[in-house]
Amino acid sequence: MASASILARLQQRAVMAEKIIAELKGQIDSIKQAAASQAGGVEEVRLKDENEELRKQVDALQVQLILAEVKNGVKQVPMPNKKGLVAPTSKDVIIDKTEPPITSSSAIPVTKNNKASETKKQPKETVYSNNLSTGEPKLKKEKKAAKNEPVEEKMDVSRLDFRIGKITTAEKHPDADSLYVEKVDLGEGKERTVVSGLVKFVPLEKMQDRLAVFMCNLKPAKMRGVLSEAMVMCASTPEKVEILDPPSGSQIGDVVTVKDFPGEPDKQLNPKKKVWESLKPDLRVNSEKVASFRGKPLAVEGKGVVTAPTLSDVQIQ
């Protein structure tokens, strides 16, 4: 609620305004009377123009009074009239450059704690800077990435961790007649346990002390109670399965890659994403018995390609 001093000042201002209006009306009447005696009404038009200019000057003085009060920390309250609360306008008013401009949306500034009220935020301007390399303007504008935008994952053989390992020992699984349990040296400082369903295809003596290609980033899984930590790679048909042969000169821990598909393998494949299941159909032994992915050979750099002993045009798994 307005204080008594503010209301008193408003009343005083209203009285002054009424006096000015009364004087203007009197001048208008005098002008009309004088204009009546002038031929063609030329003097009446001139006097009307002068009267309009006088009205603008009064409006300007009123707005400047408000600015002076605001600058000195006086809270402004809209003046009542017959139409309701109306704020004075600054239309056609020329204000001193040292004073802040008043617009129709902020003609009655309100102060709080002797500070001018916040003005409406202006829209951000686009900022340009010179591109020194081309001389063309370069737009500096922050771009927000779309939330939850799906990112397409690379799906190729580079995600599979193929390495050369040595089967140091192999024995039959104690609880499964079709499975071998092998101990494999992959050059990691400790051996991994690998369970393979090769009993029907590879004699036990040929499982001992041999090099093979292993996929090392499958998630470890139990097979009939024994945790398998890798998979030996084989050329396979329903009737025959052969362990793939590493190239001559291969060493324990050598990495097997496909040159046309560079990249780092996953640390561990996520079973939910079905990476191995998606890539397996593209792993095959070609007509020349060379292990390949989408027609490109699996190889140990500088040593040669991985091959199958006898099978060709078959699946690798």
Q: What's the total number of strands? A: 22
H/E series: HHEEEEEEEEEEEEEEEEHEEEEEE
CATH superfamily of the largest domain: Nucleic acid-binding proteins
How far the N terminus sits from the C terminus, by CA atoms, comes to 85 Å
What is the total number of structural domains? Answer: 2
Low-pLDDT parts are: 89-99, 101-119, 125-134
Strand proportion: 15-25%
Q: Structural class of the helices, strands and pairings?
A: alpha+beta
Give a description of the structure.
- This protein has 317 residues and is an alpha+beta fold.
- It has 2 domains: 4-116; 157-316, OB fold (Dihydrolipoamide Acetyltransferase, E2P) (Beta Barrel).
- It contains 3 helices and 22 strands.
- It has helices at 4-36, 42-71, 275-279; strands spanning 79-81, 84-86, 111-112, 115-116, 127-130, 137-140, 162-172, 180-185, 192-196, 210-215, 221-223, 226-228, 231-232, 234-236, 241-243, 255-256, 283-285, 291-293, 296-297, 299-300, 304-305, 314-316.
- The strands form 7 sheets. Strands 7, 8, 9, 10, 13 and 16 form a 6-stranded antiparallel β-sheet that branches. A 6-stranded antiparallel β-sheet has the order 15-14-22-17-18-19, with no helix packed on it. Strands 1-2 form a two-stranded antiparallel sheet.
- Strand 1 (79-81) and strand 2 form a beta hairpin.
- Helix 1 packs antiparallel against helix 2.
- It is rod-shaped.
- It starts with a helix and ends with a strand.
